[in-house]
Every structure is written in C-alpha cells, then in structure tokens.
Amino acid sequence: MPDRFAVGQRVRIADRTPPVHHRVPAYAKGRVGTIERLCGLHGQPERFIRDNGAPLTRLYRVRIPQHSLWPDYSGPAQDQLDIEIFEHWLEPAE
Amino acid sequence: MSGDGHTHDHDHDRTFQPDHPEPTSDGARIGLALRELLIEGGYYTPAEEREVIEAMSGASPENGARLAARAWLDSDFRERLLGNGAETIKEMGFDLSPTEFTVLENTDEVHNVIVCTLCSCYPRALLGMSPAWYKSFNYRARIVREPRAVLREFGVEFADEIEVRVHDSTAELRYMVLPQRPPGTEGWSEERLAALITRDSLIGTQRELT
Fold first, then answer.
1. CB B166 within 8 A of CB B138
2. Spatial CA neighbour of B65 closest among B178, B180, B151
3. Residue B25 falls in the annotated catalytic set
4. Nearest to B144 among A23, A81, A85 (CB)
5. Per-residue model confidence as pLDDT tens digits over A23-71
6. Å between B168 CA and nearest CA of chain A
7. B-chain residues within 8 Å CB-CB of A85?
8. Does a cis peptide bond (omega within 30 degrees of 0) precede residue B98?
9. What is the C-alpha separation between A83 and A24, in angstroms, rounded?
C-alpha cells in the first residue's frame, strides 16, 4: 500500500479514544502538525493487544508547534514537539 | 481446586530465580505468575530471560558515548547514524531491533530532549537503565508542557533564539541525542572524547559538556 502522507505535509491527529490500548497521548489528539519523517511499518498497538498487530501500518513522526499544543505556552514561537503517530490516526489538514 | 485431570502438584520446579525482590503487591504477583506460565508453556526459557537481563544490566551510557564520540570524529559515520540509526549502530556491535533508533543532533540553533509520556521507553542497550526521574510523572508530564522550565531545573539555560525540540517516544522508536562537541577538544582520541559525554547529555537534559 502506498504511503498516504509525505514529508512536509500537514496532518491532523484524530481526536478519538477507542476503548482499547492505544499509543496516542491525550494532549496530541486533535492537533495539527507536519510530517517530519516516515518511520517504517509496524504493528498497530490496538490490534497487538488481541493478536499480532497486523496489518503492519506506516508510522510517521509528526512535528507540532508547542504554541498550538498549549495556548499558554510561555516559550518562543519556534519550539516544537515531535511525536510518533500511526497512519490510521492521521488525516490531511489545511 | 481438586477436579479430575488436575494431575500436577503445586510444588512447581524452581527452574529459575527471578532477578527481583519477592513480590509484595498484587501487580508484582501477577507479573511473576505470568512469567512462570510463559516459561512453563515453553514460550521462552529461563536461560533466555537471564541473557536479556544480563545484557540490560551490562549496558551503560558508555555505549551511547562511544557512538557520539565516533560521530564527532567520523563525518561519514555521523551522516549514516543520523540517516539510519538502527542499521548504523550494528557496525559498533549494538542492536535495538525490532524498534527503530533515531539520533537527534544538537546544533547552535536546536536543542533536543527525549521523553516517553505514556510509559518509560528508553534505549537501554545504549544508555543502560533509565534514571528514576526519567520515569517520574513529574518529568513526563512537564517536559512536553514547559520544557524550558524543566531544563532550567537541570541547569540548562539558553537563549530565546534556540529552538527546543521535545521528542515523545510513544511507539516504535528509541532516541538518543547527539550533543555538540565542546570547543578545545581538537585532536582528542575517540576514547578521550567519549569520557566527556554524560548520560544526561544523551537524553538532552544537559547541553554543555566540559
């Protein structure tokens, strides 16, 4: 399956909370960032808990400006946070 | 329970001694019971478990320091390390697979720091066991929220012009920071350079090396 996103593309992290183990921290849900790099194919945590994690899914590193994560962030504008997010948690953003 | 078919007694063979204190909490007892079931079920052997524990106990930040010192001296190695960390560290005898490994380079413009907000992911094979503060709620909650304030508590101060980049290790990647080579170390050997490099500088809670 081709990669859905490319480096530099703007993406939104889904804001949902499935009733199962998943690896997206609450503070990142619903946030918009930029694809920083592609990180290989890995088993989905939500599926690992019952099976082997298949199908393997593209993992990305997403870069999010600190000021958009925390509206009252006190540091300078260029500070960033990088986080690993699986493809099925991402959608294109404007 | 004394039903039919339950033929084995409960004096289980002590095929191994867990390398932990006797469990006193429910969670620890469940963990121990699970481990015994996995071993009795043949999923792995006590010898394999011992090997993993010994490898983890034997690892120390000196491993990461060797990688960083080599990167300072050998620009081809540095490029490979930054481009594909997981493959490149195999050249030095380290292996983190199946997790990926990403090296984050500090520059005059950027300072990197790592955390695992969801648990305590850490490149143990390269940095040894993680410090208690790395696993604390305090560090994990605050380093993503107010990294400059937390770094100040570690004694790291820098100009507003520098970009602070926090890396949350949430899934399949492990990270290590490549600190900047201090001035005045021209001509130093790899061994001498490695001795300068601290655990905290490889996590990113220290910036200057002296």
1. no
2. B178
3. no
4. A81
5. 999 999 999 999 999 998 999 999 988 888 889 999 999 999 999 999 9
6. 5
7. 170
8. yes
9. 9
On the 0-12 / 13-18 / 19+ scale of CB atoms within 10 A, A70 is middle
- Is the predicted ipTM greater than 0.85, yes or no? yes
B121 counts as catalytic: yes
Classified as helix, coil or strand, B54 is: helix
CB atoms within 10 A of CB B43: 10
The 10s digit of each residue's pLDDT in B144-160 is 999 999 999 999 988 89
Residue of B nearest to A46 (CA): B171
Residue B32 makes CB contacts below 8 A (sequence gap 6+) with: B18, B20, B23
Residue with the two structure tokens 């006797």: B22
Q: Which of A81, A88, A89 would you mutate first to test chain B, the one with the most B CBs within 10 A?
A: A81
